[in-house]
Recover the amino acids of this structure.
């Protein structure tokens, strides 16, 4: 499985001066900092409430990103990046594609195509998606976990079919004399990394996944315990538990000093990320989640329905301690110490979201670029 690795995540929002400007710049940052991988999200609209993605809260960034809900299609963008000459050929992944909204045959085709274009550098991240990208578009959201498991099985069936006609019973994605003739790259298919959190999905990861890619686990002890569940499930079906790559997606908020870090963590836009945390995480800090005691987290968030005053009311309730818990934050040395703790609990591939530029003061947001690059360079040595 190798040593510790990291990648950068790009949100794929359409920006000025061109749709590919930000992904290209972030790919370059990943390449020069020694990253192993570059990732993009898969959404139809943003997880940031559009009501606060305004010049008042986003500052000069609002000129760069005119509409935060103008999200680009991930497989198209990764194909674009794979086709261009780059200083380093990073692994390319989607974190994560939606197994409920996308038919698995289409996902199998997209991932297999990118694997061929990229010379075998594709990672297929899959998850159940979110309510905000399904229900508003007429997609059934009643059994997302069952659909995810069937989607993975369908993708593997198609990939393993060798171009022969294949049939498979499934309550969601039945195959009847289906054909999938795209070859692998030198006999390989993209590894499948599963965005799993609850016990049932952790079991699915252990039985079917090549990697584990959680988004909302917020404490290293929780991460280690969940990883044990994944590995136990793998062992139960005769798979090698150590062959599953333990990954995670986390935001990094860094700056030259603690005051600037705390200022960024206290920004409205940064605190909207706490709305994606489950109610249990809020409760540990003595606060009730504004969306209710039973709120499960990002999967149930529909940010486009929140008006500005509601978002401001909600984010005003976010404890500073919760923001410190759901991110890697501090000076570069402090951030690297936090990542090392997660590494000691099993993490081997960190996907980094850069939250450092969200300081409400433009000068400080720009100044955070240097410390952020220091963090990336430090990750190479973990």
């Amino acid at each position: 499985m190798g040593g510790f690795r990291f990648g950068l995540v790009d949100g794929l929002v359409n920006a000025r001066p061109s749709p590919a400007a930000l992904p290209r710049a972030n790919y370059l940052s990943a390449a020069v900092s020694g990253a192993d991988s570059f990732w993009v999200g898969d959404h139809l609209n943003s997880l940031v409430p559009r009501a606060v993605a305004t010049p008042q809260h986003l500052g000069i960034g609002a000129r760069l990103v005119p509409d935060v809900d103008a999200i680009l299609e991930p497989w198209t963008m990764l194909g674009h990046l794979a086709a261009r000459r780059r200083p380093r050929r990073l692994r390319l992944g989607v974190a994560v594609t939606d197994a409920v909204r996308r038919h698995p045959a289409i996902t199998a085709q997209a991932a297999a195509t990118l694997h061929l274009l990229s010379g075998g550098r594709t990672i297929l991240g899959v998850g159940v998606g979110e309510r905000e990208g399904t229900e508003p578009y007429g997609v059934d959201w009643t059994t997302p976990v069952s659909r995810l498991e069937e989607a993975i099985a369908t993708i593997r069936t198609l990939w393993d079919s060798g171009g022969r006609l294949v049939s498979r019973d499934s309550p969601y994605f039945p195959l009847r004399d289906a054909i999938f003739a795209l070859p692998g790259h030198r006999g390989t298919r993209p590894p499948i990394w599963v965005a799993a959190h609850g016990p049932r999905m952790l079991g699915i990861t252990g039985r079917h996944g090549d990697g584990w890619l959680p988004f909302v686990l917020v404490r290293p002890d929780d991460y280690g315990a969940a990883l044990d569940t994944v590995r136990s499930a793998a062992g139960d079906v005769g798979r090698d538990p150590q062959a599953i790559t333990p990954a995670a997606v986390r935001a990094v908020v860094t700056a030259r000093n603690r005051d600037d870090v705390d200022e960024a963590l206290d920004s409205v836009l940064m605190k909207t990320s706490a709305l994606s945390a489950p109610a249990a995480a809020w409760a540990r800090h003595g606060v009730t989640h504004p969306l209710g005691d039973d709120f499960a987290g990002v999967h149930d968030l529909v940010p486009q329905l929140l008006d500005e005053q509601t978002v401001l009311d909600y984010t005003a309730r976010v404890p500073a301690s919760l923001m410190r818990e759901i991110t890697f934050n501090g000076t570069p040395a402090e951030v690297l110490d936090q990542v090392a703790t997660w590494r000691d609990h099993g993490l081997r591939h960190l996907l980094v979201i850069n939250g450092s530029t969200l300081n409400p003061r433009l000068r400080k947001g720009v100044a955070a670029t240097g410390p952020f690059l220091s963090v990336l360079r430090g990750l190479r040595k973990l």
